[in-house]
Structure formats: C-alpha cells, structure tokens
Amino acid sequence: QVQLVQSGAEVKKPGASVKIPCKASGYTFTSYYMHWVRQAPGQGLEWMGIINPSGGSTNYPQKFQGRVTMTRDTSTSTVYLELSGLSTEDTAVYYCARDNCDGDCFTYGFDIWGQGTMVTVSS
Amino acid sequence: QSALTQPASVSGSPGQSITISCTGTSSDVGGYNYVSWYQQHPGKAPKLMIYDVSNRPSGVSNRFSGSKSGNTASLTISGLQAEDEADYYCSSYTSISTLVVFGGGTKLTVL
Predict the structure, then answer these.
(1) What angle do CA A31, A35, A37 make, to 5 degrees?
(2) Per-residue model confidence as pLDDT tens digits over A46-59
(3) At B69, is the secondary structure helix, strand, or coil?
(4) Strand (E) positions, B45-103?
(5) Is the Cα torsion angle A69, A10, A4, A42 positive or negative in sign?
(6) How far is Cα A6 from Cα A1, in angstroms, rounded to an integer?
(7) How is A31-95 classified by DSSP, letter by letter?
(8) Minimal Cβ distance to B102: which of A45, A59, A114
(9) Are strands A92-99 and A34-39 parallel, antiparallel or unpaired?
(10) Dihedral over Cα of B80, B82, B86, B91: its sign
(11) Residue B63: which of B43, B45, B82, B44 has the closest Cα?
C-alpha cells in the first residue's frame, strides 16, 4: 500500500541539527512532490517546504531559509529534512506529506502523511 | 497568529450538520482554488478530507463537502457522527512569502 515511513523520536541539544528520513513505498516516488509540515505540542500545522523528488528542486518559506535543507535519494525512495541551529521553539512533530497531484503539478493538498517524528530540543 | 482564520471550536449533535469557516485574503483563499481541509484525531497524522476547494479524495465520506465564497472557504459535515470529533485545519496556496498557509484549527465536539 501507499505509505510514508519516518524515523523514531529524536532528542537534541540547542544549536544542534537533526536529519529526518521519510521513506516512500507503494507508488512511483518521482511522480509526486513531497512537503514537510511540523506541529508544535498543542499547536497548529506549519508548512516547512517542498521538494521535487524527480529533479531535487526545493522551495522553502523565508522563515526557514538558511536553516532547512530538503534532499532526496531516488535509489531508496527517501526524502530527508535537515534542520540546523535548533532551539526549544523547534520542538515539534515533523511530518512528511505527499502532494495529491500526480505529475509535475500541485494541489497543495497532502493526501499521504508519514506517521510523524517527534523532535525534542532541550538542554 | 495563523494566516487563515478559523473558529476555535464548533459543536453539534449526532445527525446534525455543522460548518467550519476559513477566512483568508485575495492572496490566498480568495485568489486560488487550492484550498484543502484536514481532519486530525489526537496523536494521529492529519487526514486529507477536501482538496481544490470541493474535491473529496477517494474513500472520504460524502458527508464532507467544501465550498468557497470570496475570501472565505467552508467545510460542511452533514449527519454528524461521534467519530467526526476531531481537530480540523484548512490550508491554502498563497502568493505571498510562504507557498502554503494553514488555519489555526477548529476543535469539533460531537455532543
């Protein structure tokens, strides 16, 4: 079945970096854009950026530019989110989510989600 | 403060219909038909319920419907059921700064 599987919880010190994998299966990896969304405890959803698994191009909101890097490995159908310069405000569940559009297109609707990776930043 | 405005909470009795609003601007909700709605149960990942304003993904009940008028999108749930109790989030493409903006979320309580 179509699914996205993420890694387990992480605990990081302030200033550190975290790299979260998201492995796709059950569909053609390069046919769907992938987004990353995070959710702080008790808070709403926040979009972190998008990657084209085919060509590797990315787009990040200004808030995260300089701190976030999204990459992909087509040989393993895996996308990665790396966030550097962590602070306590980065404590959140991080989700990868597939765009609903098949091909070089967007609906900006996310039809398949990973199970989430909890990242805790604490000294 | 979220870019899209949703009511913090709504409630309804089983069998009733409720509507959740999502208000933005002409740079997001009002300007594009890329509005989506998500259902999120506690401790779970969000689930796509509506995309492109009014389209339902395969497998989503037809009790869920979406619409838009001006800068406000709406999610209507008819025939409320206990399992509909959850948080609901809207999102939209935006032409300003970030590509995607979310609403702050609405907690639906089924009385």
Answers:
(1) 160
(2) 999 999 999 999 99
(3) strand
(4) 47-50, 64-69, 72-77, 86-93, 100-102
(5) negative
(6) 16
(7) GS-EEEEEE-TT--EEEEEEE-TTT--EE--GGGTTTEEEEEETTTTEEEEEE-S--GGG-EEEE
(8) A45
(9) antiparallel
(10) negative
(11) B82
Query: Are A106 and B93 an interchain contact pair (Cβ–Cβ within 8 Å)?
Result: yes
For A13-29, what is the mean pLDDT?
98
| B38 chain-A contacts, CB cut-off 8 A | 45, 110
pLDDT, tens digit, 9 for 90 and up, residues A60-92: 999 999 999 999 999 999 999 999 999 999 999
Instruction: Read off the tokens for B8.
Output: 């913090």
> What number of H helices and E strands is found in chain B?
0, 9
Spacing of C-alpha B3 from chain mean position? 14
Two structure tokens written together for B18: 């409720």
Interface residues of chain B, partner chain A, Cβ below 8 Å: 2, 34, 36, 38, 45-48, 50-52, 57, 89, 91-93, 97-105
| Number of CB atoms found within 10 A of residue B11's CB | 13
